[in-house]
Amino acid sequence: MPTITINNQKIEAKEGQTILEVAKDHHIDIPTLCHFPDLDVQSDCRICMSEIVGQKKLAPSCSTPVKEGMEIKTNSQRVYNARKTITELLLSNHDTNCTACERNMNCELQTLADTLGIDENRFENILEHEPIDDNNPSITRNADRCIKCGRCIEVCKNVQGIHVLDYMNRSHDTKVAPAHGKFLNDQVCTYCGQCANVCPVASITEKSDLEKVTHAIHDETKHVIVQTAPATRVSLGETLGMDSGSIVTGQMVAALRRVGFDKVFDTDFTADLTIMEEGHELLSRVKEGGKLPMITSCCPGWVNYAEQKNPDMLDHLSTAKSPQQMFGALAKTYYAEKEHIDPNNVYVVSIMPCTAKKFEAAREEMQVHKETADVDAVLTTRELGKMIKRAGVNFKNIGEESYDAPFGITSGAGAIFGATGGVMEAALRTVSEVVNEKPLEKLDFEDIRGMEGIKEASVTLGENTFKVAVAHTLSNAQKVLDDIKAGVSPYAFIEVMACPGGCIGGGGQPYTTTNAKRQERIDAIYNVDTAMKLRKSHENPAVNTLYEEYLSEPLSKRAHDLLHTHYKPR
Amino acid sequence: MLESILSKYPKEQDMLIEILLDVQNQKTDQYLSEAEIEQIASYLSLPTAHVSSAVSFYTFFSTQRRGEHVIQVCKDVPCYLNDSDNLVDTIQKQLGIGMHETTEDGMFTLEPTSCLGICDGAPAMRIGEHTYTKLNKDRVTALLAEYRGKR
Ligand code: SF4
Ligand code: SF4
Ligand code: SF4
Ligand code: FES
Asked: Model-level pTM?
């Protein structure tokens, strides 16, 4: 255990730690730009430089291991000067119109400039304007804000295994872009938004639908309803100054009413419905010798990936629509009929942890009435945070309220959809009770919870035992697919989520989502589950009423028309 | 043509630069198209962004059609300090083209390049495979005339 000093403070470091890691353990902040927790260290940007007494050159804290007796300064004049120069140089090649920026007051570069006291840049601004990349429904790339830190490249290449983005050109002309320096929609981008989540500045963000939604809310002719995805209730608080993992379900519902939505519903309801449809689809595939393993289809990042990179696997995907789209389809049929509202005047907004959901909502397969989207607009958790602030709602002190009926009655099984393993767990709760016709002794399937990349469990249905698996991140998904292609996959059912940790770690969640924050949100979502009276989808009375009144039974003709879809290679 | 070139090479990712050079050199317009980059990427099972990044990094590759003689003037510091700007200016005026452009007759393309490794002879440039050092206005004028005469 090396003993070192940082800023004159004696510290026992752990073997093999970097300066940055030791500093973090002892609550000393060192700024980083190219480095992001959970991603590989690149040591490119040099903003993290520290002074090591006795060494001529400053050392990058993120990649310099500590050694016995090292005397480190992270706040000397030399360090300060270096950080300041680097930041000024970055700003000299940056669109510094901060007030016109998506991440004003929430930007790592702006924070650096502020803490370093850069009130005037010694360097002339030499930015050459690049076209904005926003010809897709999900993601906006603004190269004028890029500081070439490389985080997006890392996450797309190494976490997702896709490698859409890379450095193009060299030296002063360097830019970070998809192949040929072109647009995301020309390439195999899944719109998962992980790149946006790690970007320290506003170079990659969601394509905002905030204005569209505000307009609809203020349009008297529109009946504007909103659904909130499972994962948003454990992350929205972060965008409004609360700790990560805060459960804010009731406050969120109240805030959505204050903002002006006519009805506030819960995607957890259609998550329960998804389990009914998908669970029965699984049972019928098992019984009738259909394609196995069946793979979940509620994650649009994953569906995009399958369509683009694994078109030969599409018949493994469940035909069930995602909870978001089941909600949209029912809102414009069942709900409109029940409430006697012209479906053309029902405006459906979803609050999602996800950027790919914007793409999903824009798919032409997702239109029960020709040429109008079932879900009219999708806002990310971050966009909702902004909307709440803009509306002057004091979120922290607002009283809790409950969702509206009928799409507000939900189970814990619907809630855990937000975490990796949750869809599988919810399905197992229902499928095993339906088949075995007796209550499960234990509802918690702990083997498939948590941040492990690929998890497995087995379930006994009648006479047979089936193996199931859960994969999150697209590189893990590919591993599971490769086994299927090689004919060695032992599973009957597989859950895939594109984002690390599942939707709680989605691309539309509060910026700079680390794995530590993911774990806090996961813990929170299982707390939501255990606190619920209902914890099984098939016991949700509102779902059962929906079948009685409208759909008759899972996989019925009407259920097929409204709640199922198809996929095509792209 | 691309397929026959590719078939000469093992599907090893280390072969990337060799393949790119080979493909480019066999084309009279001396450049790599987007479609070619994509095919080469898929031949080696590399992401297109990776291949595209490599192509854009090295100045001996181009993604735009080029003329017969590619003139590359060093844009790095030693040459800059020895007035490479003036060199570029002279060439542009004499050929009537800007950077990254090709003369109408298809004779010359003008490009910048990173350091050629001959800083002691700054300012330096390369025409095709030949490098020229210690350049000034008169030498460049003479060189261009010489190349024109070759046709
Ligand atoms: S949205 Fe996802 S797939 Fe697309 S570039 Fe970003 S990380 Fe890669
Ligand atoms: S887009 Fe963002 S994450 Fe990617 S290199 Fe630029 S600043 Fe970094
Ligand atoms: S895991 Fe969730 S947040 Fe990520 S792309 Fe899939 S649905 Fe969206
Ligand atoms: S954070 Fe250490 S070099 Fe970029």
From this structure: 0.95
